[in-house]
Amino acid sequence: MKTLSLGSGFEQIEGDVFTVDIAKQTNPDLVWNLNQTPLPLEDNSFDLIVMYDVIEHLDDVMKTITECYRLLKKGGTLHLKTPHFSSANSYTDPTHKFHLGYYSFDFFDPDHERFYYSEAKFKIKYKYLHFHRHRYINWLFEKIGNKFTWNYEQKWAWIFPACYIDIKLEKV
Predict the structure, then answer these.
(1) What are phi and psi of 88, to 5 degrees?
(2) Which of 147, 160, 64 is nearest to 104 (CA)?
(3) Are the beta carbons of 34 and 54 closer than 8 angstroms?
């Protein structure tokens, strides 16, 4: 399985991984500003793209997801982790440009009512809200928040903030 790690940083991922980062110090295979597209990589060449704590830093979410779509093989997976909009971390880092929620990536699913924003077609394979684990109440809200996500984000997110969103999208 061929993996592309975008904004790889110092994180180590096992397997056949091609790393891209803007920071030379991280020793990526390609030093590149992810705001510049297209990346100098072939279409349909990766089985998996991982972006952990990256998408919120970029200038254009739609353009970035569309570029990932171009690079993934059909049936390939885009795995994203990003702070939830209710997380203090989402607002603490001054380089964060976007504050995303549980439903932010539904707009790339052809079955979504507002799919027309992008040509990139993805099915949601997995979505999960993670909460800080240091308090029992957060464990409870992780269960409730993931079962009743719409109500959680509309009514409870600012009282019991989530930590981050973990999402996997499959190219169709």
Answers:
(1) -60, -35
(2) 64
(3) yes
* 41-84 tens-digit pLDDT: 999 999 999 999 999 999 999 999 999 999 999 999 999 999 99
CA pair distance 78, 87, nearest whole angstrom = 22
Task: With beta carbons less than 8 A apart as the criterion, state whether 153 and 102 touch.
Answer: yes
Long-range contacts (CB closer than 8 Å, 24 or more residues apart) made by 7-10:
7/34, 7/51, 7/52, 7/53, 7/54, 7/57
| pTM value surpassing 0.90 | yes
Pick the CATH number of 2-171 from 3.40.50.2300, 3.40.50.720, 3.20.20.30, 3.40.50.150: 3.40.50.150
CA 69 → CA 44, 46, 50, 61, 72, distances in Å? 8, 10, 12, 12, 5
Alpha carbons within 13 angstroms on the beta-carbon side of residue 67 total 19
By three-state DSSP, how is residue 25 classified? helix
